[in-house]
Design brief:
2 domains, alpha/beta, Rossmann fold, 14 helices, 44% helix, 285 residues, four-stranded parallel beta sheet, six-stranded mixed beta sheet
């Protein structure tokens, strides 16, 4: 069956309906089998799958899945907020685990209508959502015990790093993706991480990610600036980022407190959240 399905799916003359029929047929042939062709959508979701020790069951993920390294070697089905129906079906998944923010919604609805088991998991900012996400992913993969173990590990590691000293600085999370700078306000995982790290969000008067002008950056006067590794790289390196107009004029740059953090570690609120908190607490001193 797998050989026949692979041949049909690789036939350049085959259309969408053929792909759909093959997926449905494969699901009907072994409805009770544990999922072995899993597609994960959302960087934190993918990281949780690996943290549970189930990474070998993944056959594809999305562009936001940048950790661990093994996740970057899998086929990509697009970005989890802008999914391709055919791209997902081409992987012949027997389980789709998606962030609740994945979409467009009509793509997920069509996948469910076609019989592809699809599980949407919690993905809001904050530790509570993270712990619920771990449980939901573990249950979807039928490894609930591993999920409880991972939840306990995350909680205990957070308790351990909270004891570390941190200076109560006004911090600003700044992203650079080729266009205007963006700041992270409330309602974001970055803001939740600042709170866990004992830092005040200098952009707390705004919600979500907002464009940030040089003048606004100077006016906010943060005494610590946190950016992502990719943002620093797109600016030509962390030193070049810190020397940008606006950034260079802040108390943060003048005190040498401009730091770069792994993108998913800073923005994803995943299993390594305690590592992120420890890093930010140390950088604040």
């Amino acid at each position: 069956m797998a050989r026949i399905a692979g041949k049909l799916l690789s036939d350049s003359t085959g259309g969408m309906m053929l792909r759909v029929l093959v997926v449905l047929l494969m699901l009907l042939v072994s409805p009770l089998a544990a999922a072995e062709r899993v597609v994960s959508l959302g960087g934190s979701v993918t990281e949780i799958v690996y943290a549970l020790g189930e990474g070998d069951r993944l056959v594809a993920d999305d562009a936001s899945s940048i950790y661990p390294e093994a996740a970057t070697q899998l086929p990509r089905v697009g970005y989890y907020r802008n999914l391709s129906l055919e791209g997902i079906l081409s992987q012949r998944p027997d389980l789709l685990i998606a962030s609740e923010n994945a979409g467009p919604p009509e793509v997920l609805e069509r996948l469910r209508a076609m019989g592809v088991p699809t599980v949407a998991v919690s993905d809001s900012p904050g530790v509570e959502s993270l712990l619920e996400r771990v449980r939901e992913v573990a249950n979807a993969l039928e490894v609930p015990a591993a999920g409880e173990t991972l939840r306990a590990r995350i909680q205990s590691s957070l308790e351990a790093v909270k004891a570390a000293e941190a200076q109560p600085r006004r911090a600003l999370v700044v992203l650079h993706r080729g266009g205007p700078l963006l700041s992270a306000g409330t309602g974001t995982s970055a803001d939740a991480l600042l709170t866990l790290s004992g830092l005040e969000n200098a952009a707390a008067t705004g919600r979500g990610y907002k464009p940030l002008s040089e003048e606004a950056l100077v006016a906010l006067a943060p005494d610590m600036i946190i950016t992502t590794t990719m943002s620093a790289e797109s600016a030509g390196g962390l030193a070049a980022f810190a020397a940008r107009p606006g950034v260079a004029a802040t108390p943060a740059a003048q005190a040498g407190r401009v730091v770069a953090v792994d993108d998913l570690l800073l923005l994803g609120m995943g299993p390594r959240v305690a590592e992120a908190v420890a890093l930010l607490r140390k950088a604040s001193n």
